[in-house]
Design a protein that fits this description.
heterodimer, A: alpha+beta, Phosphorylase Kinase, domain 1, Transferase(Phosphotransferase), domain 1, two-stranded antiparallel sheet, 10 strands, globular, B: Rossmann fold, six-stranded mixed sheet, 7 helices, disordered C terminus
Chain lengths: 305, 242
């Protein structure tokens, strides 16, 4: 359910904080999450991302998570500033300023740079999840849109709206990536919840059409077995098929255990050699572009409903 | 926290106004959410505005959705309304302390503390959701989606730290009988329940208002029973305090 959020900031508009009076010049819209919109803005300190929320409580709840994370890890700055702004409609909206993360989605990255980057990106993503798990948090809403990849497969998680303390109910999720949706377990935050979503994300990268087709069936028939069958049928996923099935079944204790197992696969010769021959690479590229087109069409259709 | 979630696809056409009934629910401290299902229904302009008004009178949220979005909508509305209920209570307290009713008006640092309390209470307080399902003829093809949404809601509620229960009603009960029928009494688990709606006499009437009143009664009886066991006078009192 995306609540219609009418506030939109124009390029060139200058936003001034109500409490701290900092000024930000809006460059463009970067994305939209369940709790609000994210803009690229220019401030005295340079480029930053500004997230403006439609609901003060919802956005503050997300900010509280970021503040709690920051307290645990002084090296990492999640929040630059928290304030309120006056929208073009004269109403007040809460916002916060964070680091601007440059990057593209995994599917865009693979389409541009080649599918042989997939195992490394997977490993880096597991590393990011492992950091959160170590601190007692679950990312929650892991999906293609919430992961950005930059040069050399460097990965960043974006949109912390779903981040949940372990043991609580997952705050935000997307059905197709949700363990509960597949009748594969609870919606309580534990590390295995993220690993389940990670496995679905891998499938989404390679077999989005077949995966979406599975969601059309009866809820009772949705199961891990259906997902496992899809993994077995997918050639690109065969090097990690066993790993994915274990993740779906919740066999890894957390992301660092999962990452360790993934790394072992990575250094097997057959995983690395896959897709490196030119014809295969070209085929892969074509397939991935089709996949990207599929995803874009799907999201386009979904958002237009 | 008490909620009623009304799932319907059209206008009420029998008995008292559902808006009045919804206002009664609010007066009893029950938040009323309404979901209108759009697929081959007759929601229309009239239905849409009725749905919105019922929710407004009932202090809840309203949404018009397709069957595909039903599960996600139901669980998000329930969650959001629970937070709102807590928020209202906290705001009331704040008014006494600060003379300032609105959390939005607080500076970000103070807001952060208040929201932490709201989140914590929202996650740990007891929550009851009575689902009231319109079972008039046009809803028949949508009931599978409704059942799915109920199972999905249970799953989300089970992940909360506080105790959560649901009950399920459908209306009308039969052509001549009561306004709504209890399909499932308070439960915190749907394991083993494959079909919530078994025998459904599909009828044309939609007594939304009377059905809401009956669910309010159900809540009150439950309260009465519980309070009566703990403290007799308290139970007696609650009957008069409206």
């Amino acid at each position: 359910m995306t609540t219609s959020f009418k506030l939109s900031l124009r390029r060139g508009a200058v936003v001034t904080g109500k409490w701290k009076h900092s000024r930000y010049r809006v460059e463009r819209l970067l994305g939209e999450g369940a709790n609000g919109k994210v803009y690229l803005v220019h401030a005295d300190r340079g480029w930053c991302a500004l997230k403006v929320g439609m609901d003060a409580i919802d956005l503050q709840s997300e900010i509280n998570v970021l503040q709690a994370l920051e307290k645990q890890d002084r090296k990492h700055t999640y929040l630059y500033e928290v304030d309120d702004l006056f929208g073009p409609d004269g109403k007040e909206y809460p916002f916060y300023i964070m680091r601007y993360v440059r990057g593209v989605t995994i599917s865009e990255f693979l389409a541009k740079n080649g599918p042989e980057w997939f195992p490394l990106i997977g490993l880096n993503l597991l590393g990011k999840l492992a950091e959160l798990h170590r601190k007692g948090w679950v990312f929650g809403d892991l999906k293609i849109d919430n992961v950005l990849v930059s040069d050399y497969g460097y990965v960043e998680l974006v949109d912390y709206g779903g981040v949940t303390a372990m043991g609580k109910g997952i705050r935000q999720f997307t059905e197709i990536y949700d363990r509960g949706f597949w009748n594969a377990g609870s919606r309580s935050a534990d590390a295995r919840y993220d690993l389940f979503s990670f496995a679905v994300l891998c499938m989404m990268l390679h077999e989005p059409k077949k995966l979406h087709a599975l969601t059309g069936g009866l809820p009772q028939t949705r199961s891990i077995e259906e997902l496992e069958r899809l993994i077995s049928e997918c050639k690109e996923l065969s090097p990690v098929a066993g790993w994915l099935k274990q993740a779906l079944a919740g066999r890894f204790y957390d992301a660092s255990e999962g990452a360790e197992a993934w790394r072992r696969l990575l250094h097997r010769r057959d995983t690395r050699v896959k897709g490196s021959k030119t014809p295969g690479w070209l085929k892969g590229l074509a397939a991935v572009s089709a996949v990207v087109l599929g995803i874009s069409l799907y999201w386009l259709l979904r958002s237009s409903i | 926290m008490k909620q009623i979630l009304l799932v319907t696809d059209g206008c009420s056409n029998v008995g008292m106004s559902p808006v009045v009934a919804a206002a009664h629910a609010k007066a009893e401290g029950i938040a009323l959410n309404v979901v209108g299902i759009l697929d081959y229904g007759d929601v229309g302009e009239l239905g849409a505005s009725e749905i919105e008004e019922i929710a407004r009178a009932g202090g809840g949220l309203s949404r018009l959705v397709n069957m595909r979005q039903l599960s996600q909508t139901v669980q998000m509305m329930t969650r959001k309304t629970a937070v709102q209920t807590i928020q209202l209570a906290v705001q009331k307290e704040l008014k006494q302390v600060l003379g300032n009713g609105s959390i939005e008006a607080l500076p970000p640092e103070k807001r952060s503390e208040v929201v932490r309390v709201i989140d914590e209470l929202g996650e740990t307080s007891k929550l009851q959701v009575a689902l009231l399902i319109d079972a008039s003829a046009s809803m028949k093809p949508k009931l599978r989606a409704v059942e799915e949404a109920i199972h999905d809601l249970m799953l989300s509620l089970q992940a909360r730290q506080g105790h959560s229960e649901i009950a399920v009603f459908h209306f009308p009960s039969s052509k001549y009988g009561e306004d709504c029928k209890l399909d499932l009494d308070w439960t915190d688990n749907l394991k083993g329940i494959s079909s919530i709606f078994t025998k459904f006499p599909m009828s044309g009437t939609t007594p939304t208002g009377p059905a809401i009143m009956q669910v309010i009664d159900f809540y009150r009886q439950g309260d009465y029973g519980k309070k009566g066991r703990d403290d007799e006078t308290d139970g007696m009192m609650s009957d008069y305090v409206v």
